[in-house]
Every structure is written in structure tokens, then in C-alpha cells.
Amino acid sequence: MRHYGFNFLWMFIWQPGVAAPPPDERALDFLAQYGFNFVRVPTDYRFWTSDFDYFHPDDRVWEKIDAYLDACRARGIHLCLNLHRAPGYCINANHLEKHNLWLDETAQDAFVFLWESFAKRYKGIPNEILSFDLVNEPPNIGQYGMTRENHAALVRRTVSAIRAVDPGRRIVIDGLGGGNLAMPELADLDVIQSGRGYQPMAVSHYQAGWWDGHQTVTEVPYYPGLRWNGFTWNKDTLHEYYRPWRELEAQGVQVHIGEFGCYNQTPNDVALAWFSDLLGLWKEYGWGYSLWNFEGSFGIIGHDRPGVKYENIGRYQVDRPLMQLLLDHRVME
To answer: How many other CB atoms are found less than 10 A from the CB of residue 53?
Structure first.
């Protein structure tokens, strides 16, 4: 899974009556030109579902996903299709859900149904082009009633349903606890486990209003050496943080970092120092990664972190040092 790229939020923010946009072909051209080969597309099931009627999707909406896939395929870019908001669960604004993915049979049946439907629609698409990322960032253990046991049962059921349709489909599962916790109980399942690159949150999410801890971090962060959550954060701390993931890999499980990034209130020199350590470790481990996101407050383009100096590249204003870090820390075959 040595894929390197970005999350693209084409079908991420649902609003009533607003259709998902077409693929950003200009951005995809930029990726292809500079050697990035991975796009993760987090989706919201409400784009194709009305009033929680999960089993009668408007599959005309899926033609948008077809277009995303076609545009990526034309450029040799792998598309990872993800349910960011799944029936009964989302890490953001979960209270909007009618059912509970971890406890309710209706939501679980709907979840399996959706992935069976995608498996049928994309059967035969090579793994080099397409993978399925089942659900974005399951919650902390015990939250919303999720346990390792009921999570594993749902994942095993869903993987089995997909493979009954398309036996070879590449499947990704996100770590528990918001993507942070590896899942050795699923090491036998022949799926890719997807971690995150947001620790320490006091650096990556400084003043991010949706993060529960944002009000407790009042001083501008620095790195390395920041003291937060009981640890002094530096490259050695990060190496230890990924120890469970490295142990998982030692069991033969592929690891990929599906999301990482830094919000735009952290000074850019601090962000770059932190990015350098993260990317250096992942290169050492041989892991691929996907920045959240391409353009915007976490991206390489237009993030406006304090102290950034942009370079005009391909009609974009790019944080060239960050882009260069991403390019330099790929493991090329």
C-alpha cells in the first residue's frame, strides 16, 4: 500500500438539494504531474439516501463516484472509496443519526447492503485502481456502545459480503478511537489497516473548534518538545506511538496512513518540523499516506498557516516546503 496522495472532499459535506461536484480534474492533473498516486474520497450516505431509507438509494448519485473513479483511472491514480458518514455513525455530529451502527440491526444491515452494492457496481475494477475503506474512524471503545467485539463482528460480516461478490477486492479498515488504535483481533482478515497522523493533537488541531480539546490548549504550540497529554512529543515519542501498528505489520498486515495533517492556526515552521518527523518515520516503515486534504486549511494549497511562504506552481499557491517533504518521503519501487 505504498500509495501517496490526498483526501478529496467531493462528496463529504451534504446539504439538502446540493449535488456533489464533478471531479476536480485540474487538481488530479497536478497530482499526476508531481507523482502522487492516491486519492481517498470520504463520502456521506445522505447524498443518495432520503429520510433514512437506506435500502432504496438513488444510485444515479453513484454516477458521480463513477466519474471520480474514471478521472483517477485515466491518470493512473488509485481511488480509495470511504464511508465517512455511514448509516448510524459518523465521527462528526453523530447525533444526526437515527440509528446506531454498533448496536442496531437496521444500521448494520444497511451498512452491509451499501458495501455489497458497491462491490457489485465495481466488480472487476483492478485493485491497482480501487479500494474500499469501510467506515471512517470508528469511535473510542465504549462510545456509542461500540466494543472491539461488535466492531470486529460487523467488519467480518461486511468483508465476507464484499468478497462473496468480488473475492479479490482490496479492503481498508480504519483504526479504532478515531483511527488511532490498531486492531490485532482482525490481523487474520487480509485487509489493510489504516492509521492516522494527528498526534499530538495540540499541534495538529490547535484552535480547531470541532476538536473537544481545543479549549484546553491555550498556548501556541511548538515542536519538538511540546508537553501534552502526559508525554513530551518528539520523534521518539511518535515512534513509540506507532509501535502497535508496527507490531501489527510484523504479523503480515499492511498499514497505510489514511489521514494526517495540521490545522492552519499552528505556526508553519512548527507544522513543518512535525511533518518532517512524521514523514521520516513513515518512510522508514515503508508506509504510504494521504494528507487531509489537498486545498484548504489542512492542505498544501491555501492553508494560510502563520509564516507560510507560497510558491506559484501549476496555477496554485503551494506551500512548497511541505509539498517537497511529501515528495521526498515516498518509498519508490
So the answer is: 10
Examine residue 16 and say whether the peptide bond preceding it is cis (omega within 30 degrees of 0): no
CA distances from 258 to 55, 172, 174, 196, 223 (A): 28, 9, 8, 6, 23
Is position 333 within any domain? no
Q: How far apart are CA 8 and CA 27, in angstroms?
A: 10
Within-domain flag for 12: yes
CATH, residue 98:
3.20.20.80
Q: Are strands 316-318 and 311-313 parallel, antiparallel or unpaired?
A: antiparallel
For 220, other C-beta atoms within 10 Å of its C-beta total 12
- Provide the whole-model pTM: 0.96
Structural domains of the chain, count: 1
Query: Whole domain around residue 16: which residue ranges?
Result: 4-328
**142-194 pLDDT, tens per residue?**
999 999 999 999 999 999 999 999 999 999 999 999 999 999 999 999 999 99
Is residue 151 situated within a structural domain? yes
